[in-house]
Fold:
Amino acid sequence: MINKKFDRIKKAFAVLLVLCFVLSVTVASASAASNSKNGYNDGYSKGHDGGKKQGQKDCVKYGIREVLSKIPLPSYNQGWTKYYKDTYNRGFQKGYLDGYNGNRYRCLK
Structure:
């Protein structure tokens, strides 16, 4: 009788332990997904602003000639994770090009 009760408690505990593990993995992956999206969006916003300003300067100074040779590196915060930095960098590059080209197009139109 006591053995059966102990086995039942062991099974219940094992099920609860598995459930806790699954929940923790789910929460961790959801957290990582939201961080990557925020890193990309933050980088895109900063890059777009920088590209827009540089596109305007180049349009006034050089006119129709294409002069963009390289995209500047963004500044990083020491507290950011590697994953956040990577997504921030991708967003910054995309935003910089979109801002630069969009502003050059409007300027030369």
